[in-house]
Structures are given as structure tokens and as C-alpha cells.
Amino acid sequence: MTIQYVKCKEFCLSFETLRGTLKRYRDRLTDEALLIALGQREEVSEVLQTPVVTEPEEKPAHSLSEVLEEWCMDNRSDWKLRTEKLNRRSVNLFIDWAEKRSVRNIEEVSKQHISEFKGFLEKHYQAPRSRQDALIKLQALFNFCVSKRDYLTVNPVKGMTYTKIATVNHKTEVTVSQYNQVMKTEYVQNYTGLKWLLAILWNTGMRIGEAIQLRPCDYREIEGIKCISVNAEDGKQVKNDSSIRDIPISDELLRMGIWEAKPALGWSKNNAAGSRIVFAFAQIGVKHSSHDFRYSLSDRLRDCDVPDSVRYHILGHAHTTTSDRVYKTRQPLKQMLLAINKAC
Questions:
Q1: Does any domain span residue 156?
Q2: 125 and 266 share a domain?
Q3: pLDDT per residue over 25-62, tens digit each?
Q4: Within this chain, do residues 194 and 270 fall inside the same structural domain, yes or no?
Q5: Which one of 15, 128, 181, 338 has the fewest beta carbons within 10 angstroms of its own beta carbon?
Q6: Looking at the structure, do residues 76 and 190 belong to the same domain, yes or no?
Q7: pLDDT digits over 151-178, tens only?
């Protein structure tokens, strides 16, 4: 207002004219200030009325491979080494399949993916139980993500496993004549380790993994009976607690000199030893696997009217009755020896 007054004085205006001019100038300044104030208030009002939109917090993704490692680590104290190996193999099969379809994170897997993976399993595995086993292991991994981690809220494998599983049983009995014939082949006679392996499987019904882990110290005399001990000592692997047992050595094996030889068979992998057995039987024109020996001994024991409890002890099967599971105080070695000598 002072600057405006000085400017007006230069024109030598009358008092009334000067007062009117300054009043109009004052009113204009007031109006401009009011408009400015109203404009700012409207802008503030608009800001207050406009809802604040915030982006949802993005949850971190978890790769299938990372989750597999977490799952294995979480269960390592409960799993045997072989169990972890089999679980890893099944899940890695899915991971390889998923990555080819650009599915790398656990959160991306849908029921549609599982449905398509089932189609892949039907081509990958001939046996229906192998397909089911792969899905069950995968379902366990996703259960871990739901129940022990907050990675998922639902399991995409739930309800996607097979409801009816056909049993494909290719095991056939090794007959007495086939066993005697294969033992006389030049291939077996010139392969000492294989000869002992076949003889041990025939006379004990051991699993091949149990047989190839035998060491000289596993040939033991217990209660006056010469036995082969199947155990988990020195890092050896067994299928379950029922697998740990002492099997009396049959008269046939003793005549062959097994007690003096106490053979360690020399294989480190089941497949390597198993392929030798398949090749040995191929020499006489028949097909047999290592597991056929267990099937064969079980049948021979049953044919000799051996009680199931004794048969289970020999083969290392879990007992089905409470008395055999709970009240057993020692293995019936004498009964087992009589049974084995009858069957062999």
C-alpha cells in the first residue's frame, strides 16, 4: 500500500481521488488473497478426500530347489540316508519337469500342473505304484510348505493322487533246479563273489542291499549257533528296525565253507550286484532278479509249515501280531536254523 501511495502522489491527485484509488487497490489485494486461500483449501480438500492407494506388499518367492533343501533339512533327524535319497529323487523329477515349463517357484505350482505331471509320470514309470509313490513324496513336500512354513495355504497335490493302484508283480520263484543249474555255470564258478552272493540269497532270503554290506565281522556265533548278522553297525544301512536280525547259517552254506571264508562280497551298489544276477540267470535262459530269492525262500518256508513268526524273523519282516512285536525276548535261533535247513 505504501508503494502504491507514493506512486499516486506523483500525479498530484486530490485527496478524494487518492483515497478512492488506494481503497480500490486495497480491495483488489484482499480479493486476490482470498482467492489464493480458497484455491489452496480446495487442493487440500481434494488430497484429503482422495483415497491413498498403496501397492500390496509383494511376498518373496521360494524356489522349488530351495524348498527341497529346507524339507530335507527339517526331516534329516528322522529319515535314514536311503529315505532322503529316494525323496530327493522323486522331487527332483518334478523340479526338472517344472523348470522346462518355466515353473521355478513353489508358489507357482497349481493343480493343473500336477495333473499334467501325472501324464508325464504315466510315460516315465511303467509300474502304477512307482507313479503313486512319486506323487506321495511330492505331496509331502507341499504339506511341509503349508504346515511348517507359510509359503502356501493349500496343497496343490491334495486330492490328485491315484485312487486305485493296480499291483504289477513281476516276482517269480527261483526253483531248486534253476538255482542248482545257475550255480554250475562257468560264469558263476569263475566269479567267486557272485557265487557267494547267490548262495547267501538262496539260503537266507536277505535283501541284496543287506548281503553286499556284509563284512567278516558279521559272521558271528550266537548262543552256540553260527549266524550272519544283519546290522546297522559301522554306517551300514538297513530298511527298518525289523531288518536288524541274526540269521542262522544253513548246513549247505557251512559245507561250502562260508564260515572259514567269511566273504565280503565287494559291491557298493545294489544295481551293480543285481545286474550280475540277471546276467547269470540269462546264461540258463531264464529271467530272475535278486528279490526273487526272498520270494522263493518265503514260499519254501511256508511249504515246510514254518510258523509266520519264525519266517518273519528270517526274512526281516515286521511282525503283525502283538505277541511277536512286544513280548518277544530273543530271536528263536534254533527254530530258525531248523526251518532254514528244511527249506534249503
A1: no
A2: no
A3: 677 777 677 666 666 555 545 545 555 555 656 678 99
A4: yes
A5: 15
A6: no
A7: 999 999 999 999 877 655 567 899 999 9
CATH of the domain at 249: 1.10.443
- What are the backbone dihedrals phi and psi of residue 25, each rounded to the nearest 5 degrees, phi first? -65, -40
In a domain, 104, yes or no: yes
Average pLDDT estimate for 315-330: 58
- Alpha carbons 278 and 271: distance in angstroms, whole number: 10
Same domain, 186 and 140: no
DSSP class of residue 49 equals H
From residue 273, alpha-carbon distances to 104, 189, 270 in Å are 37, 16, 5
Closest CA to 219 of 263, 271, 171, 274: 263
The domain of 308 spans 176-343
Alpha helix (H) residue ranges in 50-171: 64-75, 81-99, 111-124, 128-147
Alpha-carbon radius of gyration of the chain: 41
Neighbours of 204 (CB within 10 A): 27
Tens of pLDDT, residues 225-273: 999 999 999 989 888 888 999 999 999 999 999 999 999 998 999 999 9
Within this chain, do residues 128 and 241 fall inside the same structural domain, yes or no? no
- Distance, in Å, from the CA atom of 161 to the CA atom of 136, rounded to the nearest integer, reads 7
Side by side, the strands of the sheet bearing 225-230 are 219-222, 225-230, 245-248
3-state secondary structure 276-319: HHHHHHHCCCCCCCCHHHHHHHHHHHHHCCCCHHHHHHHHCCCC
How many distinct structural domains can be found in the chain?
2
Whether 111 and 189 map to the same domain: the answer is no
Phi first, then psi: give them for residue 262, nearest 5 degrees: 40, 60
Q: Degrees (nearest 5) of the Cα angle 47, 53, 55?
A: 150
Name the burial class of residue 252, with classes exposed (0-12), middle (13-18) and buried (19+) by CB atoms within 10 angstroms of its CB.
middle
Is there a contact between 157 and 139 (Cβ–Cβ < 8 Å)? yes
